[in-house]
Amino acid sequence: MANVTVIGAQWGDEGKGKLVDWLSNRADMVVRFQGGHNAGHTLVVGNQTYKLSLLPSGVVQGKPSVIGNGVVVDPWHLLEEIAKIGAQGIEITPDLLTLADNAALILPLHRDLDQAREAAAVNKIGTTGRGIGPAYEDKVGRRAIRVGDLADREALEAKIDRLLAHHTPLRRGLGLPEYDGAELLRALEEIAPKILPFAKPAWLSVNEAVKSGKRVLFEGAQGALLDVDHGTYPYVTSSNTVAGQAAAGSGLGPKGPGFVLGIVKAYTTRVGEGPFPTELFDAVGQHLGTVGKEFGVVTGRARRCGWFDAVLVRQSVMLNGIDGIALTKLDVLDGLETLKICIGYEVDGQRFDYLPAGLKAQSAIVPIYEEIEGWAESTQGARSWRDLPAAAVKYVRRVEELIGAQVALLSTSPQRDDTILMRDPFQD
Ligand code: IMP
Asked: 232 CB less than 6 Å from ligand 1?
């Protein structure tokens, strides 16, 4: 297949950044299709570490990159990220980056609302506080300001009025000061000349690339279990994170996304609140967090850690139409004597082989585990199957069997080259 879509198959933070960077090498274009700067992708290239939130990972390799219509864009953050990556020697020009002119903007009032709601809530979602949810609300509420509006002062003025008619009472209710529309207009006019050179009909660029036989890589953010429909609702993000969104969020037909590569961590983590059946509160959980350096790229929050949950990943394989997985962070399990894999759930005495949709049932899950022998040797930096201990190979094979998908790539350290290739997604 010419195109590849990379998505997180768990709750995000599976190590997509490294794999996307690795695959970018083989791609001609990299496209983001959902989320915003709530994502955090860490790319380690030689002795340089790049931390990206909104820019597609392809920019590091100098590949034409697209922020698609499905993304919500904080224009101030975008300019900051461009400056930050520029200081690391990567110049982001309009030739390199295309920003969909029909993408919705995240404004300071979205961030205010996100943070004020979280502060006031009894049952917090644990959002990144970056205004993602409120920006998507305004998008589906048909009152968003979009990238292209920055070129039209009259439209901008009318849209700000419409937006504030909605936000003013909301802010009042939360005890926030009234928002000054004139100030917002001034701020948007100030950044418009810096943002507009990147603004284009991105759907056209993506379609033209596909039509001319270019290899396009679609880069997902977050993970399938944070999907607004399929995730652990309401403890989810506000976009569809599943692979199907690659088409709608970039303006391509449903056959476009090509090979779906699910990124799967060899254990499970999540940040923020919400159900997590295999969460560990013991020394093993601490081991996973410390050895796996499980701290959020965006917020620095410690991630919750637990055993591998095959029930969730099997569901994710189906929801995303995963063709193959990239298994990451196997080395974090090095040295653990016995490993556990969750193979089923029990809720009030009833057995489930899928995640029940209701929050009450999700919170009552008792995981059913299978034990599997660990390995003492290091798997870090392995570059072929032959370098892996037999018990590690057995673990990987059992994971494949339980989730119904095969390993296409195995990542054995954050370094780009520490990757074992079983199947090339671009050739498949
Ligand atoms: P929001 O996307 O900021 O609205 O946050 C909603 C939920 O998604 C929270 O639990 C966040 O911790 C989680 N979340 C958002 N982005 C990421 C990510 O890139 N990785 C992991 N979790 C994320």
From this structure: no
Closest residue to atom 10 of ligand 1, CA basis = 272
Q: Give the structural domain span for 114.
A: 104-195
228 lines ligand 1 (CB under 6 A): no
Query: What does the pLDDT read at residue 261?
Result: 97
| Domain total in the chain | 3
Assess whether the previous peptide bond of 234 is cis (omega < 30° from 0): yes
Assessment of whether the complete model's pTM goes beyond 0.85: yes
Rounded to whole angstroms, the Cα distance separating 278 from 370 reads 12
Q: Tell me the C-alpha to C-alpha distance, in Å, between residue 199 and each of 16, 67, 73, 125, 196.
A: 26, 10, 12, 33, 5
Residue ranges in the chain whose pLDDT is less than 70: 1
Domain boundary among 169, 195, 221: 195
Is the C-beta atom of 42 inside 6 A of ligand 1? no
Percent above pLDDT 90 for the chain: 88
Domain CATH code at residue 291: 3.90.170.10
pLDDT the model gives residue 130: 97
User: Can you give the pLDDT at residue 1?
Assistant: 60
